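Q: Dioxygenase, please. Structure only.
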Amino acid sequence: MIDQIKGLHHVTSMAASARTNNKFFTDTLGLRRVKKTVNFDAPDVYHLYYGDEVGTPGSVMTYFPFPHIARGRPGAGEVGTTLFSVPEGSFGYWTERLTAAGAEGLKTETAFGENRLHFAGPDGDGFALVEVKDDARAPWIGNGVGEDHAIRGFHSASLRLRDEGATAELLKYMGYQQMDSRDGVLRLGVPGGNGADVIDIETMPNISDARLGAGSVHHIAFAVENREKQLEVRKALMDTGYQVTPVIDRDYFWAIYFRTPGGVLFEIATNEPGFDRDEDTAHLGEALKLPQQHAHLRSTLEQHLEPLEA
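A: Structure for Dioxygenase:
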């Protein structure tokens, strides 16, 4: 069994408008934009990262905004909901804030004994806030949301699958343990994890396959401490029969990818070197940072890419 994974590193999704996406995550959710760069494989498209002050693994939501992309179709084989941790007693504040911002799909519920506030992102993204007592992670409060209400990082993510079996076994091999099972949802968690250490599997045998588009999660990334531990995980996965990519340098972490039995794309990402490797912490996310292989495109990209601030 793999024991190097401590929880989520980041979640990467698709969007239609970079400016709308940036406004929602910074102005509405109060997260910090910790990096403004481009898609390694499509440099004419941003890759935007939002999180806490330094982009701590387990706090980072990232986006590829493709202009004019069609909206995704929810279905089997994808991350259904990404859930953020907020302090107990926050829902009144967040309901008012999200309503004022025009967010749709607001709904409260209790699941696994936790209070949840569901809402949709600008492209219909599935999100929820979870009230968590004594989450010790430090929030970012530089965008107008006070410490009593601010997002601490991820709480969990839910996978929407037709059959939980093989993916549940994979997650258990990755160090997750079964915590509970209720109403068709299997809950797994990493003991002593990083706070973003819960995965729920929703079994929906009769739904159609998801179609990737705006509002869809492209992949979900799990955190390991460093490259040495990442290589250990890669070998263990390959020894079990998974087709895993070589290690890819993403500038702010190293990444490997593989497709799960349920169709979800998993990534294993390192906590090192971090988002401050090329920017001072006080100025994270301000300048357009380009991977070395795309540095020669700077003048063209600066003219082409949509300004994030109106």
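A: Brief note, in case it's useful. The chain has a mean pLDDT of 97.
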